[in-house]
Amino acid sequence: xxxxxxxxxxxxxxxxxxxxxxxxxxxxxxxxxxxxxxxxxxxxxxxxxxxxxx
Length: 54
Description:
Strand content: under 5%
């Protein structure tokens, strides 16, 4: 296997790896059971007494 072939295979492997990672993260974020957790976390900045700088 020469350098050009190894380089091309590494590029294809990297593409599939990052695509699978992207799909995995998207599925994890948009799963129905995560909605309540994300909504609760979105309200944290709006709650009184949540300012840690004081």
